[in-house]
Design a protein that fits this description.
The complex is a heterodimer of chains A (515) and B (213).
Chain A (H helix, E strand, L loop, with lengths): L2 H12 L2 H19 L5 H13 L4 H26 L8 H12 L3 H34 L4 H18 L4 H16 L1 E2 L6 E2 L13 H19 L23 H23 L6 H14 L12 H24 L5 H12 L8 H4 L1 H22 L3 H8 L3 H20 L2 H19 L5 H23 L6 H4 L1 H15 L2 H10 L4 H6 L5
Antiparallel strand pairs in A: 1-2
Helix pairs in contact in A: 1-15, 2-4, 2-15, 3-4, 3-9, 3-13, 3-17, 4-5, 4-6, 4-15, 5-6, 5-12, 6-10, 6-12, 6-15, 7-8, 7-19, 7-21, 8-19, 9-17, 9-18, 10-11, 10-12, 11-12, 17-18
Chain B lengths: L1 H11 L9 H25 L10 H22 L7 H10 L2 H11 L6 H11 L13 H20 L1 H15 L5 H22 L12
Helix pairs in contact in B: 2-3, 5-6, 7-8, 8-9
Classes of the chains: A mainly alpha (515), B mainly alpha (213).
Chain lengths: 515, 213
């Protein structure tokens, strides 16, 4: 049970030159793709998955993925600040104040507080992950099939209910995802479900196909329907004014508390099945605004409004890794893609992961520390390069995204039909975005649905078809109770606000849209 | 039916009539029909096998849920939207909505006015979704879909490089680019770079097609 011995071992692996190179490549690629407007971390990983197919080294690949993820997050904050186009809902809060700071000639300060805040939050939360992962995994050994069923249900319903504006639309998205997850051969009986007599659908619909379709194809079609309505002027960087790391003494003084508070909110929310980084970033933003001495500055570029949410965003990622690594349950769209990546390498996250492949887990965790340092070293000095990337003309950019999306699916499946399925899902994604349906529940439904069904049936096989196990086992019953609570929570702020005679403005913000 | 609800909507809010959510109603109908079809598919395939640990419980539950939710959605689209409270709406939008930042930016920078934000405001108070009022253009996405279809069908016969380069240029054109030379100058090297990068560097086979590669 010596965590720090394990971690040191992980560092020993990661600091080998070849793995450092993987980390550096991952961080750079991730930032490069993440900077592109409209691309969030989930799509970044999905688009870069084919790059890893020919690597036969899972450790190197996961080190790269950690780098890609962190890079994509940093890149996303750059885009939010300079262009006001957050690639995912977790950066929306950053964009509010960050873009205003940039417009008032404080772009460097905004970028610096985001980068350094992410570094601080990333490091602290990775430390927390290091401390919590193994004990949680030890607890998770006690989990039975019924608990997994309830947990998967909770993760799915929580994301749907807490993220997004309308419960109906969220649930429809979820059902859509569940349906996509059902297509193909049933794992237990081998019966074909919803394959409509075609061979191509027997294998089911790959998560990569769903993600690329919804995010890349759907997003591009959506942009095409609203040409000329997107901001495409990059806010220029002001000349360096001095101060350590582009931040004046005053900026540092105003930033460090929001960083720590953002971390404190981000990590637990990330670790709980509550939809990843969307809620903590908005909570952090709302909290900083309430606390601010100079409230009038909010909305006009308050540095606290960038520092807090960015820290929360980063901390939430390490938090999301807790259930992902220890239970194998993804709680955000990005985690779902990470899980898909794990499965490509036949690595099944869960309580056994820490016993079966400790070197992989600890190398991954160690690479999170290393990735954080690399990003801090890369991001600020290379900012001029990232601004150049931002200035790629939109038609070229989206044409490129479509080519890479097609390539990604084709390389992953080697089948024209799968590419067509991805296109079809893309058209679906376009209409979903048009009618403001959230995207994240589709992905979680598609990946958690089959998992849930398997555990449900496994439970019933063990109990000889007796359904009462779901309520007699305390843990399961509690988790199922939380599902009901999660469904009621969206209505709570409204009710409370009505009682106070105020509209539910603060909570409204916490309902981010798609991922 | 739609006209009746339209006038009712107009009566509720005479100053700014909420546009009839026609698109959302069509969507709801399509969803409902699709859900019923899938439920019927599952029901037929289950063929009486409703055992709770069998393979057909999940499909039946999911498709039933789909039908119920689609019906719920459709009903909300036909219901009169609740009376918006104008003072509250503007206040909430001005203080918290992310749209508000763009909006305030628009005051000083008229070019930056983005229509969807203005359209999103009624949505902030009324639950049913209206089609965004902004000029949504249907031609570019339709053309883009057609281009994608052509791309994937050309992929095997014409080869990755040729299909990608042609598609890239066409796609940039659809998305508003008017600089042929620039697009071609980007498309051709990019297609070659990807082809050689993936086939040589990453050992992933891509169709060579007609070009002697």
């Amino acid at each position: 049970m010596n965590i720090f011995g394990d971690l040191l071992g992980g560092f020993g692996t990661v600091l080998e030159p070849q793995y450092l190179l993987y980390a550096a490549i991952g961080v750079t690629l991730g930032t490069f793709v993440g900077v592109l407007p409209g691309i969030g971390p989930a799509l970044t990983i999905a688009l870069l998955l084919p790059v890893t197919f020919s690597l036969d080294d899972p450790i190197g690949t996961f080190i790269m993925f950690a780098g890609i993820y962190y890079g994509a997050m940093y890149g996303g904050s750059t885009t939010s600040i300079l262009l006001n186009t957050p690639g995912e809902s977790a950066s929306v809060a950053t964009a509010i104040e960050g873009y205003q700071m940039a417009r008032r000639g404080r772009a460097r300060a905004a970028l610096a507080t985001a980068a350094i805040g992410s570094f601080v939050a990333g490091t602290i939360s990775t430390l927390l992950l290091t401390l919590f992962a193994k004990p949680v995994a030890a607890l998770a050994v006690e989990f039975r099939a019924a608990d997994y069923f309830a947990l998967a249900l909770l993760a799915m319903v929580a994301v749907t209910a807490l993220v997004g504006r309308s419960l109906v639309r969220g649930l429809i998205s979820l059902v859509l995802g569940l349906f996509l997850g059902l297509v193909g051969l049933d794992e237990l009986t081998g019966q074909a479900r919803f394959s409509f007599g075609t061979l191509e659908l027997l294998d089911g619909i790959d998560v990569v196909v769903i993600i690329v379709g919804l995010f890349a194809i759907g997003e591009t079609l959506y942009v095409a329907s609203r040409l000329g309505q997107l901001p495409d002027r990059v806010t220029p960087l002001e000349p360096v004014k001095g101060g350590f790391g582009w931040l004046s003494r005053q900026d540092w003084a105003r930033s460090w508390r929001p960083w720590l508070r953002g971390t404190a909110v981000g990590f637990p929310f990330g670790a709980l099945p509550s939809g990843g980084a969307d809620i903590p970033t908005f909570l952090s933003y709302t909290y900083e605004r309430h606390r601010a001495k100079n409230k009038a500055e909010f909305g006009k570029g308050a540095i606290e409004g960038v520092a807090g949410p960015e820290a929360a965003n980063n901390a939430a990622f390490s938090g999301v890794l807790v259930p992902l690594l220890t239970l194998g349950i993804p709680t955000s769209a990005t985690a779902a893609v990470m899980l898909a990546a794990f499965q490509i390498f036949n690595v099944q996250p869960g309580p056994q992961l820490f016993d079966k492949s400790p070197e992989l887990v600890w190398a991954l965790i160690a690479s999170l520390y290393v990735g954080n340092v690399l990003l801090l070293l890369l991001n600020l000095p290379l900012i001029r390069l990232w601004v150049k990337v931002l200035q790629i003309p939109r038609p070229i950019l989206f044409a490129g995204i479509l080519v890479f999306a097609t390539l990604g699916v084709y390389a992953a499946t080697n089948s024209v039909i799968q590419v067509l399925i991805a296109y079809g899902i893309g058209v679906l994604g376009f209409f979903m975005r048009h009618f403001e349906f959230p995207i994240a529940p589709v992905i979680l439904g598609a990946i958690l649905g089959p998992m849930m069904e398997l555990q449900f049936r496994r439970t019933l096989v063990l109990s000889n078809g007796d359904l009462s196990v779901f309520v007699t086992r305390p843990l399961t019953a509690v988790l199922l109770g939380l599902v009901v609570v999660a469904l009621l929570v969206p209505f709570l702020p409204r009710i409370v606000a009505r009682l106070r005679g105020r509209p539910a403005t603060a909570q409204r913000l916490a309902f981010g849209e798609d991922d | 039916m739609p006209t009746e609800s339209q006038t009712r909507t107009g009566a509720v809010e005479p100053a700014a009539p909420v546009p009839a959510p026609r698109g959302a109603r069509i969507l709801g109908t399509v969803l409902l029909a699709g859900g019923l079809f899938l439920l019927w598919t599952a029901y037929r395939a289950a063929d009486g096998d409703y055992s709770i640990s069998g393979p057909w419980l999940a499909p039946l539950v999911v498709t039933t849920g789909w039908v119920v939710l689609a019906a719920w959605y459709l009903v909300t689209q036909f219901r009169t939207p609740p009376r918006p409270e104008p003072a509250v709406a503007t206040e909430s939008a001005a203080t918290t909505e992310p749209a508000a930042t763009t909006e305030s930016a628009a005051l000083t920078e008229p070019d930056a006015t983005t229509e969807p934000d203005a359209a999103a405001e009624p949505n902030a108070t009324t639950e049913p979704d209206d089609e965004p009022v902004a000029a949504v253009r249907w031609l570019p996405p339709a053309l883009l879909s057609a281009a994608l279809l052509g791309y994937v069908l050309l992929l095997d016969p014409a080869g990755f490089v040729l299909a990608s380069a042609v598609f890239f240029v066409a796609c940039a054109r659809i998305l508003g680019s008017r600089q042929w030379i620039r697009d071609v100058a980007v498309a051709v090297p990019l297609a070659f770079a990807i082809y050689y990068g993936f086939t040589q560097g990453l050992d992933i086979t891509l169709p060579a097609g007609v070009l002697p590669l």
